[in-house]
Amino acid sequence: MVGRVRELHEYTFRQTSTSASTFPKRPSIAPKPCIDIKHIRDNPDLYTQTCLDRNYLSLKDNPRQIIQLFKDWKQIQDSALKARQRNKDVLNKLKTQNPSDTANTSQARDELLLEAKSLKGILSKFSDEEIELDNGIQTLAAQLPNLTSKGTPIGKEPRLLGYINHPPTAASSANHVNIGNELDLIDFGGASTASGWGWYFLKNQGALLEQALVQYALHVAMRHGFSVISPPSMVYSHIASACGFQPRDQGGEQQSYTIAQMENNGKPEMTLAGTAEIPLAGMKANTTMNECDLPLQVVGASRCYRAEAGARGLETKGLYRVHEFTKVEMFAWTTRGGSDAAFDSMLMVQKEILQSLGLHCMILEMPSRDLGASASRKIDIEAFFPSRKGKDDGFGEVTSIEHTPQANV
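Above: the chain's sequence. Below: its structure in token form.
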């Protein structure tokens, strides 16, 4: 179960990535990114330090580059303003001249016409340069991560906030693969034939257990004021990109599944959603929400699709790092001052569910290097897996909550 808090005034899209080359082409219908460029120019050291804290070393010079491009843009603006004023003066002189006047006047008119033609080309060149510089500024700004929350630990190590339930006194070391096969709950062999490695069939009580857990999570969230939504599984690729889900990671490995479409059909590229966060975020894109309607809290269950590139081994055997799974997502839009309350509400829901299920868990404030580009704060809850004591002392993430300020998607 995952929670996302979006803090906003005007809900707009911002792409979050460490590589502009991984962005899918943004069609004309896509929401236009809206980024506070002035804040970046006024606080370059703050954004540079954020990149260093997040280990986005390739982006640390972006703020300085934005400042330089803005200076170049201002110079062109000033030059263009002078050229426009001169062009206006020339056109006014042409209007006041009489074509039937003397030869000298005719010669002056010809000179003015030549100057007007030259100024038109100069202004067109200035316009192209302004657009190019502005696009460069927007691209550099879109790559920057959000500012990190003051409460987020800097570095690699999370901060322990507490535990849920007591550790089991006598835990079996049998793993879920053996248990699932013995009780006829999971079929990996059939799934590998039908779909390949990384997929699975849940069977009998295993399938019913999944549905029961989803229903239970939805009903707990509803008791806490969340409205239920059933989101689509397919989204435009530019919507997924705006949420930070790129087709490929920095190493060029595939991360998401795009849908094959007829060539030159004029339609934007489609992607299978890696999480319900993506369609839920897209639901209110290009929308200005009234403050009286906030916070708006929704919860939805969906199938999620992840390419999860990389080698598979013992640590990912079974239902770990699979390509398709069901997840319940809480999502909230809040005012700028209301995000903490929404964040705490989501944490309360997650703690209630895990405590009632009797799972031994620890609550972690995640460090800066574990945050995605759009998040300013993240809390993970990790449950104890007796069969995985050899990795991270047997703990693994089962829920998380992220806070994204000013609606960066």
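The radius of gyration is 28 Å.
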